[in-house]
Amino acid sequence: ILRSVVPGAPAAWVAALTRWGTRGLAQLAAPAARLAAEGFAVPVEMATVVGGLLRFFAAWPENRRIWFTDGQPPRAGQRIRFPGLAATLQALIEADRAGAARGGRLAGLQAAEALFYRGEIAAQMADHVAAEGGWLTRADLARHRCRIEAPVAARALGGTLFTCGPWSQGPALALALRIHAAWGLRSDAELHGLTAALDLALADREAFFGDPDFVDVPLEALLSDASVAARAALIDPDRAFARLPPASNGHAPEATPAAEEEIARDTSVVAVIDGAGDAFAATPSDAAADGPAVPGLGFVISTRGSQSRTEPGHPAALAPGKRPRVTACPVMHLSDSGRLLAGGGPGGDRQLLAMAQVLARHLGRGEPLPQAIAAPRVFSQSAPQSSTPHLAMPGRLQVEEGCDPALVAALAAKGYRVVPVVPGGLGSASLCLVASGPGGLEAHGDPRRASGQIVAELWP
């Protein structure tokens, strides 16, 4: 419960609908409320997630009550309902309807937000945290506002890449792609160069990235031509970094060595291009097993505090009112040709590595988007994981099944500790992207997930 921070998603949805939407929360949330109340057949992936994190789901009585039936975790195909969550959604719907009846659509949105952050829902959350010995208070919830911030924009891959600010890991994607471009595309070592560029970018993430309201993040300098050229010069075409390289300021990031793989939590993706050509990308992300669920409300209060650091002086160090440096990083890319891409995906720290490889394949090498998404990927594990306990496996490179054996051998010869993995399942970095341009609209899910296969069926 000490990881709990103010849940930002409800305020973010209200802010997006207020500024760009045309509908009210009651209309948009109704399908989710109905699904939670009536239930659905447990997908295989959900059963796998709960099974893989069983000790967490079983740790608290309320979590067991929500997820277990007759003392047993959910089985694939079994019907599951979430009455507490349904009641919470229904309360927000009723607040929206009442507010809209008094003052129109915007008043309805404001009424729903007030209920969550300053009304009865807020009181239940704060009382729950207090009972569990946590720090989040009603005053914290009441103070929360969703701000509209300018994205970080950087030149990359023949266009402009847009990410969230350095309170996320998003700008490291632009940094890696720019370092890779400065190094140069070399067909016999391109994947090695991109992997090394990502290691260099993640070293700078560790040294500099944090909530810019609290720390000075020199993004302009890091993304400058001179800086990326200097970083690219550190890449040896014949040798992998044995560990995460020093950052631009010479700082050598430290991490807890990991003896084995940790199971990653998950993230969802919303990626849309509407009839007017407007694009929207979001990566809502919170765990259902990282803390005790709020009795009666049906959800766990955001535990993103696990991505704050406790080392004094770290740019992402914990502080009152300071945003954790999160892994979730929706992305947009607008090519000079007018092609627009938007999306993101789950996978913790690895989502950034996956996105870099997909964009490099699609925009750098011209591969069709579905092939670029489906192509086997590699994942360096030298950087400290963003979530506590910030584990790292220096020099270790996960290589998805299906990679060219000659490429795998070449990577091993460069000094990578190659570990084969089967793509898909819990913890897999999977992407969902929408695109528009001269060729029309496209939507592509990742075949590594069943949800991606559904997208492929809807958009052949």
Textual characterization of the structure:
By secondary structure, the chain is α+β, with helices and mostly antiparallel strands. Helices cover 40% and strands 12% of the residues. A six-stranded antiparallel β-sheet has the order 3-4-8-9-14-15. The chain has a three-stranded mixed β-sheet with strand order 10-12-13. It has a two-stranded antiparallel sheet with strand order 1-2. Strand 3 (152-156) and strand 4 (159-163) form a beta hairpin. Helix 6 (83-103) packs across helix 7. It is globular, with a radius of gyration of 22 Å. Residues 454-460 have low confidence and may be disordered.
What are the key terms here?
460 residues
Helical content stands at 25-40%
Average pLDDT confidence is 91
| Distance from first to last alpha carbon | 44 Å
Q: What overall form do the CA principal axes indicate?
A: globular
Proportion of strand residues: 5-15%
**Spatial extent as radius of gyration:** 22 Å
Give the beta-strand count: 15
- Supply the helix-strand structural class: alpha+beta
| Oligomerization | single chain
| Strand order in the sheet with the most strands | 3-4-8-9-14-15
Task: Specify the biggest β-sheet.
Answer: 6 strands, antiparallel
Low-confidence stretches: 454-460
Number of helices: 17
